[in-house]
Amino acid sequence: MDKKIIIKYREEPAWEVIGGGITEYNTKMAGDDQGKNLCFVLENPDGEVLGGVIGMTYWNWLYISLMWLPEDLRGKGYGHKLLEMA
């Protein structure tokens, strides 16, 4: 390893370098991913977010990064509906 290179933890990610680099490489190798971020939520009538799903699509694939529902809403089909909408 080069002794001038330092590896350290950062509170703020270096998205421009890391994310930009992998995006540029992937685009060159596989073409435009047509990526889209998505977020579908369950809300109560007052607009309070109760749970939901967060993810993205790219190259016609769906990637779910987070999905959560409170226990009292589980097993009632809400998760299934969220995934259908995503």
Structure description:
- The chain is α+β, with helices and mostly antiparallel strands and 86 residues long.
- The protein has a domain at 32-85: Gcn5-related N-acetyltransferase (GNAT) (Aminopeptidase).
- The chain has two helices and three strands.
- A hairpin with a 5-residue loop joins strand 1 and strand 2 (49-58).
- The longest helix has 16 residues, at 15-30.
- The radius of gyration is 19 Å and the shape is elongated.
Q: How confident overall, as mean pLDDT?
A: 89
| Beta-strand segment tally | 3
Strand order of the largest sheet: 1-2-3
Sheet-strand content, in percent, reads 25-35%
- Give the N-terminus to C-terminus distance in angstroms: 44 Å
- Series of secondary-structure elements, N-terminal to C-terminal: HEEEH
Structural class: alpha+beta
Give unreliable regions as ranges.
none
Over the alpha carbons, how many angstroms does the gyration radius reach?
Answer: 19 Å
CATH topology (fold) name of the domain at 32-85? Aminopeptidase
Ordered list of secondary-structure elements with their pairings:
Elements: H1 15-30, E1 36-43, E2 49-58, E3 61-68, H2 78-85
